């Protein structure tokens, strides 16, 4: 069991580390989009797409970088009491709080799946069966949801990125749970 937990930790940490190292350069993409937005508004006709693309880029940057941030311990924490505790007490606290986070992220993933199904034109109440039907060919994509802005981009690409990011965050939380449990057992992580 310990070997399996270590394998899971190594795999998920490697995936989120590599993805996080790539995604962190998204800030430069965002800066480029906003720079072009400023230039086009100052010297040319304003580009209609820049604000929404900047928002989508920021969402992807934030949501795909979250697991990397959690892995490195860069997330915001209330250190008023936590900073003075022993490693064992911190691990017990983290085990309890990460279980709440795993539940919350599970609800968020399910909601994101439903929202993405809606953006693909599904109006029913079973979004997971809709995606299974897309794979098997029993379901079809309906009228695609678009943004209410003037540019009107499709919403499914950013919603798909949100599913991926939330799912990777969920996997990283399970990895952090395993790390804390190994620490409590006295095993090296």
Automatic annotation (TrEMBL):
InterPro entries: DctQ, TRAP_DctQ
A GO molecular-function descriptor: transmembrane transporter activity
All copies of domain Tripartite ATP-independent periplasmic transporters DctQ component, residue ranges: 30-181
Membrane topology: Multi-pass membrane protein
Subcellular locations according to the entry: Cell inner membrane
Lipoprotein is among the record's keywords: no
Family to which this protein belongs: Belongs to the TRAP transporter small permease family.
Job description of the protein: Part of the tripartite ATP-independent periplasmic (TRAP) transport system.
Protein name: TRAP transporter small permease protein
């Amino acid at each position: 069991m310990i070997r399996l937990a270590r394998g899971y930790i190594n795999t998920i940490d490697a995936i989120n580390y590599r993805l996080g190292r790539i995604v962190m350069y998204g800030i430069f993409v965002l800066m480029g989009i906003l720079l072009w937005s400023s230039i086009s508004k100052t010297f040319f006709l304003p580009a209609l797409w820049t604000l929404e693309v900047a928002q989508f880029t920021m969402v992807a940057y934030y949501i795909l970088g979250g697991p990397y941030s959690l892995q490195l311990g860069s997330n915001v924490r209330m250190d008023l009491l936590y900073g003075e505790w022993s490693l064992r007490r911190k691990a017990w606290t983290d085990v309890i709080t990460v279980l709440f986070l795993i539940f919350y992220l599970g609800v968020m993933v399910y909601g994101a799946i439903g929202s993405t199904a809606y953006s693909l034109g599904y109006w029913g109440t079973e979004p997971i069966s809709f995606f299974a039907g897309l794979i098997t060919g029993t379901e079809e994509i309906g009228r695609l949801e678009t943004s209410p802005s003037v540019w009107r981009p499709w919403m499914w690409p950013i919603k798909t990125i949100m599913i991926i990011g939330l799912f990777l965050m969920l996997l990283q939380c399970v990895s952090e749970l395993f790390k804390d449990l190994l620490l409590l057992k006295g095993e090296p992580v």
